[in-house]
């Protein structure tokens, strides 16, 4: 049986009539930028996250950049980021001229270690950007406590965490502000590029509103040098349709994660372990094994596609060849990571095939 890592067209097949309806509605109305679909999506997504404000923007990277600018992060400032994140987190910091300070995850976790954050703080540190990697919420109580102590801004990179929950609160409402990506493969994905910010802070909200639209809130009046980082009506409309299914889809992901976890007990493969009061959005299901390459090719021979998130950490990328451009407190080794297929459109047969594949690799059955 073929198990693709992700089948992006599956959501369109499932929601075709609703999505087609958006297309015809927006096309017929003739209002393609900054209209009703966007403002409705913004209030619906803010409500979903439990945040006061949401601003739809062009993509996740731009969302992070807008927040750093809104908080006044300047060239030479230091911003604490995880060593094992997708490079966008670092690129956002670099693009405003600030210095990414890379901090490693806690042992037995994929998320940034609060104790190591404290150790990395200098007088230049202005912000910390915890990433809820793979959908697992960071240790936000600890991070917020440290941030308060040192007057740092907490910007969540929630690109992988739509619907993730930490002690009863959703990602997007766990720091000072959050950035989301709605890249097609994310839990809440558009059919093109899209993103948003959420915050409870009215000042930051107003700043981001202006910065995403040429520095303007009133047409042809430009208060700051802004960007064109807008989210269009078609994508906003599609996102509204998918948002209504997000909780149910995340529940399906959680069910698959539980099945994997149960089934791999006793095997020499480590599965993610979460605290009792935390729910991952299960954007990815990442296992750790010292036989990664062997397991990967064994599964591929059975038709099961796996991926590695991420094969090369940002600090080892050519983009960061200039060692002055970032500060590394500890290097990160991703050689044991393997992401198994997980997603709401996976059939029970596909899930069973992944489980059987992993079991037969370890048990030789
Ligand atoms: C996807 C992603 C981003 C960037 O989002 P884009 O919409 O692709 O710009 C940023 N951070 C993390 C952790 C991501 O996974």
Structure report:
The chain is an alpha/beta fold. Helix content is 38%, strand content 14%. The strands form three sheets. The chain has an eight-stranded mixed sheet, sandwiched between helices. It is globular, with a radius of gyration of 21 Å. It binds pyridoxal-5'-phosphate. Pyridoxal-5'-phosphate (PLP) is lined by residues 59-61, 85-86, 88-89, 131, 157, 159-160, 181, 183, 193, 195. The site of pyridoxal-5'-phosphate has 15 residues, from helix 3 and helix 4.
How would you summarize this macromolecular structure in one to three sentences?
By secondary structure, the chain is an alpha/beta fold. It contains 10 helices and 13 strands.
Which key features would you list for this structure?
single chain; 365 residues; alpha/beta; 8-stranded mixed β-sheet; 3-stranded antiparallel β-sheet; 13 strands; binds pyridoxal-5'-phosphate
Class by alpha and beta content: alpha/beta
Mean pLDDT: 97
User: What percentage of amino acids are in beta strands?
Assistant: 5-15%
Hetero ligands: pyridoxal-5'-phosphate
Percent of residues in helices: 25-40%
Oligomer: single chain
Strand order of the largest sheet: 1-9-8-5-4-2-3-12
**How many strand segments?**
13
What characterizes the major β-sheet?
Answer: 8 strands, mixed
> Total number of helical segments?
10
Low-confidence stretches: none
SSE string, helices as H and strands as E: HHEHEHEHEHEEEEEHHEEHEEH
Shape: globular
Q: C-alpha Rg, in Å?
A: 21 Å
End-to-end distance, in Å? 17 Å
